[in-house]
From TrEMBL:
Name of protein: 8-oxo-dGTP diphosphatase
Binding site for 8-oxo-dGTP: R22, E33, F34, P35, G36
UniProt family annotation: Belongs to the Nudix hydrolase family.
Nudix hydrolase domain sequence ranges: 2-128
EC numbers: 3.6.1.55
One GO molecular-function entry: 8-oxo-7,8-dihydroguanosine triphosphate pyrophosphatase activity
EC class (word): hydrolase
Entry keyword annotation includes Cell membrane: no
Keywords: DNA damage, DNA repair, DNA replication, Hydrolase, Magnesium, Metal-binding, Mutator protein
Ubl conjugation keyword on record: no
Pfam family, one: NUDIX
Reactions catalysed, as given in the entry: 8-oxo-dGTP + H2O = 8-oxo-dGMP + diphosphate + H(+)
Amino acid sequence: MQHIRVTAAIIVDNGRILATQRHDHDATGGKWEFPGGKIEPGETPEACLRRELREELDVDAEIGELFMETTHAYPSKTVELLVYRAAIRAGTIVLHAHQAHRWMMIDELGQLDWLAADWPIVTKIQSDFIEH
């Protein structure tokens, strides 16, 4: 089974978190995810996330601390997610790899149809930010 290392960003702005929706024609079309992507050989996770946010959203981001790591086994591959806090420093979101985006309040995140690998991130965000 293929093992893929990917990054994801938790981007917070005015108490809301950015969620992006995959194109309907993708294998997991219509599902929501935290933006990010595959780590290329020789690339650090932070450099990957900066590159992916530039490519996918047309923004320059500052990558902060590692928020969590999670692994999910899909039928055809295993995805290891390295999730970082991030902030948009320059640019306005232009979607290049998604069909939609939403800024969601933390307690609203559970309303979206997330990719299976992203659900643990939603759960941790809600427990870390709501309970404390």
